[in-house]
Amino acid sequence: MDAVDALREIATLLERQRASRYRSQAFRAAADAVAALPAAQRSDPATLRRTKGVGQSSLAVVLEAQAGHVPGYLADLRAQVGGGLESSLRPLLRGDLHAHSDWSDGLTPIASMVDAARGLGHEYLALTDHSPRLRVAHGLSAERLARQLDEIGAYSGDGFTLLGGIEVDILDDGALDQTPEMLARVDVVVASVHSKLRMPPAEMSARMLQAVAHPQTDVLGHCTGRLVEGARGTRPASEFDAAAVFAACAERGVAVEINSRPERQDPPDDLIARALDAGCLFSIDSDAHAPGQLSLLDHGAVRAERMGVPPERIVTTWPLKRLRAWLERPR
């Protein structure tokens, strides 16, 4: 097999496993380094050893691929990851409204995220990097977001559309962490709580209700902020008046996100049931921070199907024309 393809597939599988970002980045860097070599030098072990970015593990992958074998490292990862989770809902998903690039805390450039989305057969992907208050995630100021939006159009075509968006922080008082001008300019606004997750329930409810009522909010992201597994440890769910918040979402046409990341599983099952009973729309999103994580949508699809969420109430099953009509709805 092609050595560059093998290195990139290893990176993608590591990302799906949510392995250390340094491991996947190392294999992506090696793939870029090998791809940049003149064709005649790619098969020269001495040249490869001297090439910056090609380490011992990536060199072994390249040499095995060039010898006509599936590299052992890749074969092991394929066995570990398997074919993904299956559900009748997953093939109905046309896109994803929550993903990050290296403009904030994602691992790769926009182009890599777009290539992966196209590879999965997405009709659309919303690029939703973080807003400025989330400094640890290198959130986008209004100026940086404007520059990013100027680049968005170059990635659409051939049946695929990259939507401009933002995952905007819900501030303590319920305001959204971006200028009104930029919120009006983006296609998709995912509003999420990232701070003071243990705020008293009454205050958290008021905070979330204010955000849901904002005329630019489209999706309520990972609504409890909980973590149930993974390298970051666990974190309990925030407490809020679910009946009031989901009623507001239903009234405003704001979709409740079913976050597909296994470490989140957010909302919990009982809150998905309550949002369903309230008449809410849903958005099954990957919250991907790397190309390989876009495929995590199958986790969200399995949960939504198990909870009996009708496909017609999941906005990410809608074709782009219908999705745009919803995003442009009167507020």
Rounded to the nearest angstrom, the radius of gyration is 21 Å
Number of domains: 2
Order of helices and strands: HHHHHEHEHEHEHEHEHEHH
The CATH class of the largest domain, by name, is: Alpha Beta
Strand order of the largest sheet: 1-2-3-4-5-6-7
Number of discrete helical segments: 13
Uncertain stretches of 5 or more adjacent residues: none
Helical content band: 40-55%
Averaged pLDDT: 97
Would you write up a description of this structure?
This protein is of the alpha/beta class. The protein has 2 domains: 3-81, Orthogonal Bundle (DNA polymerase, domain 1); 90-327, Alpha-Beta Barrel (TIM Barrel), CATH 3.20.20. Helix 9 runs parallel beside helix 10. The chain has helices spanning 3-16, 21-36, 45-50, 56-66, 72-81, 110-119, 142-152, 180-185, 201-213, 242-252, 269-277, 297-306, 320-327; strands spanning 95-96, 124-127, 161-169, 188-192, 219-220, 255-259, 281-285. Strand 5, helix 10 and strand 6 form a beta-alpha-beta unit. The protein has a 7-stranded parallel β-sheet with strand order 1-2-3-4-5-6-7, covered by helices on one side.
Question: Could you outline the blueprint of secondary structure elements for this entry?
Answer:
Blueprint: H1 3-16, H2 21-36, H3 45-50, H4 56-66, H5 72-81, E1 95-96, H6 110-119, E2 124-127, H7 142-152, E3 161-169, H8 180-185, E4 188-192, H9 201-213, E5 219-220, H10 242-252, E6 255-259, H11 269-277, E7 281-285, H12 297-306, H13 320-327
Parallel strand pairs: 1-2, 2-3, 3-4, 4-5, 5-6, 6-7
Helix pairs in contact: 1-2, 1-4, 1-5, 9-10
